[in-house]
Amino acid sequence: RIATDESIALAGSEETDVQGLASRISDTEPRYSFFRYTHEVDGKEESPIVFIYTCPAGSKVKEKMVYASFRRFVIGAASQAGGFEVAKKVRRIYTLHG
Questions:
Q1: What DSSP letter does each residue of 19-45 carry, written as one string?
Q2: Taking CA 14 as the corner, what is the angle to CA 28 and CA 27, rounded to the nearest 5 degrees?
Q3: pLDDT 10s digits, 56-78
Q4: What is the helix (H) or strand (E) element at residue 52, kind and residue range?
Q5: In the β-sheet with 31-36, what is the strand arrangement from edge to edge?
Q6: Low-confidence ranges of the chain (pLDDT < 50)
Q7: What does DSSP say about strands 49-55 and 86-93: parallel, antiparallel, or unpaired?
Q8: Phi, psi of 83 (to 5 degrees)
Q9: pTM here?
């Protein structure tokens, strides 16, 4: 997550499967999430990294702007530090109706 002083901090690190993913991501604050999606394709196991950016409708304007502008930096920094490549990027902007 991005703190009020605009520094980036790890909000948590938990193992989950696809079914539990949504419940692990905050529905009240913007978040960046990295998810290793392990599945089989043609009998071969694959585990690409998926980057997920979520922004609930009730987020403050400043939060929306900061998270949107930091997105590329976070992907690059995390990829470099973790030694991985993001295979897919997903963005979910919540509306008042979900």
A1: HHHHHHS-SSS-EEEEEE--EEETTEE
A2: 10
A3: 888 899 888 989 899 999 999 99
A4: strand 49-55
A5: 31-36, 49-55, 86-93
A6: 97-98
A7: parallel
A8: 65, 35
A9: 0.81
Identify the three-state secondary structure at position 93. Answer: strand
Residue 88 dihedral angles phi and psi, to the nearest 5°: -150, 140
Q: Cβ neighbours of residue 29 under 8 Å, at least 6 residues apart? A: 1, 56, 59, 63
- Is the separation of the CB atoms in 70 and 78 below 8 Å? no
The CB-side HSE value for 50 (13 A sphere, CA atoms) comes to 16
Residue 95: phi and psi, rounded to 5, are -100, 180
Q: In the chain, count of helices (H) and strands (E)?
A: 2, 5
Residue with token string 């997550």: 1
Q: Tokens standing for 51?
A: 């980057």
